[in-house]
Every structure is written in C-alpha cells, then in structure tokens.
Amino acid sequence: MSKFWSPFVKTLVPYVPGEQPKLSKLVKLNTNENPYGPSPRAIAAMQAEIGDSLRLYPDPNGERLKQAVADYYGVQPAQVFVGNGSDEVLAHAFHGLFQHGKPLLFPDVTYSFYPVYCGLYGIEYETIALDQSFQIEVADYDRPNGGIIFPNPNAPTGRVLGLSAIERLLQANTDSVVLVDEAYIDFGGESAIALVDRYPNLLVTQTLSKSRSLAGLRVGLAVGHPDLIEALERIKNSFNSYPLDRIAIAGAAAAFEDREHFQQTCQQVIASREAVVAAMTALGFEVLPSAANFIFARHPQQDAATLAASLREEGIIVRHFKLPRIDQFLRITIGTPEQNQALLDALSR
Ligand code: PMP
C-alpha cells in the first residue's frame, strides 16, 4: 500500500487466479484448461493476421467473430457481444446490468470472481446455499433481487441445471437480469442461448478458454436480447473501444467455424472424465456428477489439503479451495489420458 493509492483501491480485494507454473514437466490439472490444442484452422487464421495488417486497428465491433457466433447459435449478430475473456464480459455485465439497491443473488459455492466484481462496482449481494447435493435450488432465488448470476455447469462443483429449471428462474424474475455463465457448457450441458429469443432478461456468457482451447488468447462472449447487448457495448466503448485484437478476432472466429475439431476434442474430454470418475470412485472418492471439464471430489478419510500437497510433490497440481463447505474437496481438471493416469497412479499410492 502507498500514500498514492485512492481510498477505493485500498478497499479492493482482487481475485487470485490459479497458479500458472513455469515448469512444463508438471501435470497441470488446476485451472481447467483444455489438454488438446486449439483448432488448426484457428491457428492458421491467427498466423495469417501476423503481418502488415497489424499496423491497423482491429474492427472495434469484432463483426467477423460476432457473425461466426451468430451462425453457430442461429441468432443475430446484434445479439452477440465479444470481449477479452469472459471475465471482462462479466465485468461489463456487473457494471451495466445489475441493479443497485437490491442484492445480486448467486450460490454460496460458485465462481469466486463474482464477489470481486461486486466489490469493484459497489453492488450488494446475497449468497444462496446450494442444497445437500451441492446443486442449485432455483426456488430459493424467489426473493427480491437486483439480478441473479450462476455458472452452468456451476464451478467448482461441475453440477449442471437443465433448461426447464433456468426457465423457471427467468419466469420468476422478469424485472431483473438472469446471467447464466456457461464457461463449461460444452462438456455436457444444454446452452440457455436457445432461450434468448423468449426471455429479454436472459444474458448468457461463454468463453473460448475451455472447450475451444484458447485460454491464452483471452476471448469471451455474451448472447442475449439486443438491448442487453447494447448496454454492454456502451460500457465497453466507455472503457476500451478495441477489446479484441486482430489476431484474437480471426482465431476465435475460425475456432467457431471448425465444428469438427471442437466436437471431437470435447468428446475426448467427456470420455476421459467418465473414466476418471469411475476410477476415483473405485479408489473410495465421492465425486460429484460433473458436466464440466473438471471434477469435484472428496475422500472420506483423506484430508484434501494434505492430498493436494502430496500430489504436488509428485508433480501434479490440482486446485484446493480453503473455503467454507468445500475445504475437503479437490477440483481436478480432466487432462490427456496420460495425465489422468499419472493422477490416478499417484492417488492410489
Ligand atoms: N466463468 C467461470 C465459471 C470460470 O470458471 C472462468 C474461468 N476461470 C471464467 C468465467 C472466465 O474465463 P475466461 O476469462 O478465461 O473467459
């Protein structure tokens, strides 16, 4: 802290991202990246951007990417917003779409960036407890609110809600925005983008960091009613008119266009997840049903912090959250079959 800090900055409690170690020999199962590379078509599109055109500013509207997303989901480009990672898209949504004076609602066990944005934008919030099986109970959200946000599948639990539960939430909250954060939707959930034409209070965010294996590129998006998208554009244009660079726009658009690579790699991750769940259950772990590219598991006799530390000694990094209700769980990203085997071998030792 220094005397030059504003009183506001002194109160900020920033998000702490998962560790990104330099040592590549570690088996890195801690930040839910995709073990398979991005689409070769995306790589080629990005390489094609590296040249004289970098002299020029990118398209401030990212039209090429918006069109690719619109084509993929059967919506209009005016229903799509793109930004520098879904974290940035979420930041704009917190800034521009959640009301003040009534609390924003989100689960007690969820993505820990949400309370950070509440701190940044002065939004009050209330957390709603997950049920005994760590699932979101939508009826518990029937209370005055300035908005609702949750990941689907939820993070770090991996549990997914069906579209009928989400519709129930949208119908009961017509005066506030319901934001469904679909960072992990492609690994087993049904996207609520199918509902955006019917519910003007629905905003869905997604990322290219997980199922499209482009975490290093930082691209995220939102889909919703054009009025919600316009609010995000206003915030964005008051902050940075060029959130995405030329390389990111080209690479992300091509990643959406390459459906084959996307489907194939998602299927591989899903098949590996099911194999890891079966093997860990056989080792005595309780594993929550996961629709994501990670699992959330605890062992009735083994302390989670100790387990994480001993895995680390064997060169395997997983995520352990020292948080209420979940401090005995480990969140483990699904890796390649070889990485998963290394994990299972270490756990059986
Ligand atoms: N939402 C959830 C639930 C996440 O777990 C993550 C990844 N940490 C994000 C959003 C942000 O992803 P990104 O900024 O890489 O798009």
From TrEMBL:
<keyword id="KW-0663">Pyridoxal phosphate</keyword>
<feature type="domain" description="Aminotransferase class I/classII large">
    <location>
        <begin position="25"/>
        <end position="347"/>
    </location>
</feature>
<dbReference type="InterPro" id="IPR015422">
    <property type="entry name" value="PyrdxlP-dep_Trfase_small"/>
</dbReference>
<dbReference type="InterPro" id="IPR015421">
    <property type="entry name" value="PyrdxlP-dep_Trfase_major"/>
</dbReference>
<keyword id="KW-0368">Histidine biosynthesis</keyword>
<feature type="modified residue" description="N6-(pyridoxal phosphate)lysine">
    <location>
        <position position="210"/>
    </location>
</feature>
<keyword id="KW-0808">Transferase</keyword>
<dbReference type="InterPro" id="IPR005861">
    <property type="entry name" value="HisP_aminotrans"/>
</dbReference>
<dbReference type="Pfam" id="PF00155">
    <property type="entry name" value="Aminotran_1_2"/>
</dbReference>
<keyword id="KW-0032">Aminotransferase</keyword>
<comment type="similarity">
    <text>Belongs to the class-II pyridoxal-phosphate-dependent aminotransferase family. Histidinol-phosphate aminotransferase subfamily.</text>
</comment>
<dbReference type="GO" id="GO:0004400">
    <property type="term" value="F:histidinol-phosphate transaminase activity"/>
</dbReference>
<dbReference type="InterPro" id="IPR015424">
    <property type="entry name" value="PyrdxlP-dep_Trfase"/>
</dbReference>
<comment type="pathway">
    <text>Amino-acid biosynthesis; L-histidine biosynthesis; L-histidine from 5-phospho-alpha-D-ribose 1-diphosphate: step 7/9.</text>
</comment>
<comment type="subunit">
    <text>Homodimer.</text>
</comment>
<dbReference type="InterPro" id="IPR001917">
    <property type="entry name" value="Aminotrans_II_pyridoxalP_BS"/>
</dbReference>
<keyword id="KW-0028">Amino-acid biosynthesis</keyword>
<dbReference type="InterPro" id="IPR004839">
    <property type="entry name" value="Aminotransferase_I/II_large"/>
</dbReference>
<protein>
    <recommendedName>
        <fullName>Histidinol-phosphate aminotransferase</fullName>
        <ecNumber>2.6.1.9</ecNumber>
    </recommendedName>
</protein>
<dbReference type="InterPro" id="IPR050106">
    <property type="entry name" value="HistidinolP_aminotransfase"/>
</dbReference>
